[in-house]
Amino acid sequence: MQSVLIVGNVTKDVYLRLDNRSNNFETDQNGVKWLDFGFNGSHHKYFSRISIYGGASISLEVLSRFGLNASISGTPATFLDGQFIAKDVHTTYRYILCQDNNTSQLGPSEPTYTTWDIPTNNPDWIYLDSSAIISPKLATSILDFLNLSRSTKLALFVGKSANQNASHIRELIERADIVISDIMLEQKRDFVHISGSHIEYMGRRVFWSLDDKKDLMTRLTARLTISASILGALILGKDPSEALLLARANVQNSKLSSTSNLSTLERDIADDYYRVENANKKENNMSEIEETAAKLMAPGKGILAADESGGSIHKKFESMNIPDDEQHRRDYRNIFFTTPDLEKYVSGVILFDETARQTADNGKTFIEYLADRGVISGIKVDQGLVNFDDSDEKWTQGLEGLPERLAEYYQMGARFAKWRAAFEVTDHSPSQMAIQKNCEILADYARDCQAANIVPIVEPELVYDGDYTIERNIEYTGKILDCLFAELKKKNINLAGCLLKVNMVLAGKRQEKQSTPAEVGRATAQVLREHVPRELAGVVFLSGGQSVTQATENLQEVTNNGPFPWTVTFSYARALQDPALKAWQGNNDNADAARGAFRERLIANADALKAK
Ligand code: 13P
Fold first, then answer.
1. What is the average pLDDT across 472-501?
2. Which of 171, 401, 437, 514 is the most exposed place for a label (fewest CB within 10 A)?
């Protein structure tokens, strides 16, 4: 068991709730609330008094509940069987006076210097938490000890009150293995940053809030809880994403200064984060579209996009001298649908109108044939891109008559649909106007789909073919997703019956500095976490012109940055089909080779859904 020696001050926080019939607070012209305590012989009454341990005792509790061997330097306190035991512990009293939602604090007039006793057993970690008052003397004593005990690691909270430029603080930061702060630190690149709205570490970010919590004690101890949870998780070898999720769960679940055991938190996160489990819980009252969406997001499977429009397939065939007639188009699609084990790797296939009306070798429609194999059919229902007046930007058409078409597709057996909006990146695009208009249309389409019991896939695509940096992609994809989900909300779209199909976040194809898979994984995970609501049924990626191997490698890195609140998987056209097209060459004698090439891509991409 790893040991952590906490350096900090135990406080006794006394919460006095003042009688709220008389107004004890006054507001000055700057809006600052002052507590009127007029020491003129008048007396104030409180109607409730709660006293709890705060400061270093919170760190002790959190780390102990994470199963670590934690103690506080120079302080004979322990956390045992859910209890903080504080015999003979020196505490500083803080009075927190509250009336309604206003508080004021009374602390000791002299700062309480933090105790440090040279440990007799070398701890694995020393942790200076936010309750520590770090004097130059304390810093020197600790640094001296660390010089002797080289294997002991250091974790440090640098708060607003510590001057990050003071030389003793700089030395501690320099030596520290983990630094946590609620301010921006100039000296350190990778520190755990706790802001009022999010916690960020190593490029991962989670949002936190105590909005629905009126519990004052939790608010005042939130940073202590978050810091100790992250530290505990990292010491236990959790990856940064999981550490952030555990910290958020711990602070959001905490009550009256009492935090949770690691096992409870892990269960909570699993409950929250694996949609499949949620889907099981809701099994009995799921609507048809929610059920279809959950089936499409079956773990370990993706969706094949075989829905190239007439124009796109024409270009593909032409480039390989394959005759572009209905028979060849049918035979081409037939290769994918008849590939052995298709149903092991894909839950659904997106079709183009023509294909949805064609028949398999056994005389059944392709939709029926796929259904027999346990694969759900979807249908592309947008009718392509047209230019806005006086602009080189585009919007997607096809809303006219959509409800009637959807009703027919449902009759034919299709259970989901797809609509693509495309945004090219140039020096003047995508514009807010184009983003707004396309997102409104996507929301109209989604509403029509759900009215027809069809799951909409909303697909805003930032086109890969362009000369732009990954930072611009982060910005634009985020902006587009924010706009899209705002429009879906306005139109009351049931997100549990809706899927997002989106580009991965990477530098444009014509950009000199191409993104590495590690960068793509990190940036994509970050953008999704920040801009996709957790109620959504799932996220699927288009390949967008990435090479076949690039699409798989990048998917693997996205997976490695999980887990996510939604299932995340592939829905490629080119990156799944191109090797098969090359093998087939329009000649059915090559059909088996083509099936083999397709199957290879299916296996590789399904494998990339497993974190490595
Ligand atoms: P790509 O994977 O070839 O980008 O196609 C996916 C798709 O459905 C585009 O709309």
1. 95
2. 401
Q: Which amino acid is at 60?
A: L
**pLDDT tens column, 578-592:** 999 999 999 999 999
Record the tokens describing residue 217, joined without a space: 């004690």
The two tokens of residue 11 are 């406080």
Q: How far, in Å, CA of 299 to CA of 559, rounded?
A: 12
Ligand 1 binding pocket mutation candidate from 419, 542, 548 (most atoms within 8 A of CB): 542
Tokens of 115: 């105790």
Alpha-carbon distance 191 to 156, whole Å? Answer: 10
Q: Where are the alpha helices (DSSP H) in 200-261?
A: 216-235, 240-253
| pLDDT for 92 | 84
Q: Is 420 in the pocket of ligand 1 (CB under 6 A)?
A: yes
Distance in Å, CA 164 to ligand 1 centroid: 49
Percent of the chain with pLDDT over 90: 71
Instruction: Name the residue of 574, 576, 605 to mutate for ligand 1: max ligand atoms within 8 A of Cβ.
Output: 574
171 Cα–ligand 1 center, Å: 52
**Angle in degrees, CA 275, 280, 283, rounded to 5:** 120
**What residue spans define the domains of the chain?**
3-10+54-86+108-283, 295-607
Measure the CA–CA gap between 335 and 588, rounded to whole angstroms. Answer: 9
- Report the range of poorest mean pLDDT among 96-100, 215-219, 345-349: 215-219
Amino acid, res. 393: E
Assign domain 3-10+54-86+108-283 to its CATH architecture: 3-Layer(aba) Sandwich (3.40)
In 8-114, DSSP assigns E strands to 10-18, 25-27, 33-35, 46-55, 69-72, 78-80, 83-85, 92-99, 102-106
The phi, psi pair for 538, rounded to 5°, reads 180, 165
Of residues 398, 569, 556, 424, the one with CA closest to residue 500: 569
The closest-lying atom of ligand 1 relative to the alpha carbon of residue 577 is 3
Report which ligand 1 atom has the smallest distance to the Cα of 542. 2
Which residue, by CA, sits nearest to atom 5 of ligand 1?
A: 573
Residue 98 Cβ < 6 Å to ligand 1: no
* Topology at the third CATH level for domain 295-607: TIM Barrel (3.20.20)
Terminal alpha carbon distance of the chain: 26
Given a cut of 50, whether residue 607 has pLDDT beyond it is yes
Distances (CA, A) of 492 to 7, 24, 437, 489: 51, 45, 18, 5
Pick from 196, 13, 219: nearest CA to 97:
13
pLDDT in the model for residue 540: 98
* Structure-token match 């006219």, residue found: 400
| 262 ligand 1 Cβ < 6 A | no
Strand-strand pairing, 102-106 and 92-99: antiparallel
d(CA 175, CA 555): 36
Question: Looking at residue 281, what is its pLDDT?
Answer: 42
CA 458 to ligand 1 center in whole angstroms: 13
Cα of 504 vs centre of ligand 1, distance in Å, is 12
- Catalytic site positions: 459, 501
Q: Check pocket membership of 64 for ligand 1, CB cut-off 6 A.
A: no
Ligand 1 contact via 575 beta carbon (within 6 Å): yes
Tell me: pLDDT of 274 over 50: no
Where residue 254 falls among pLDDT bands split at 50, 70, 90? confident
Is the pLDDT at 283 greater than 50? The verdict is: no
Closest CA to 193 of 212, 178, 176: 178
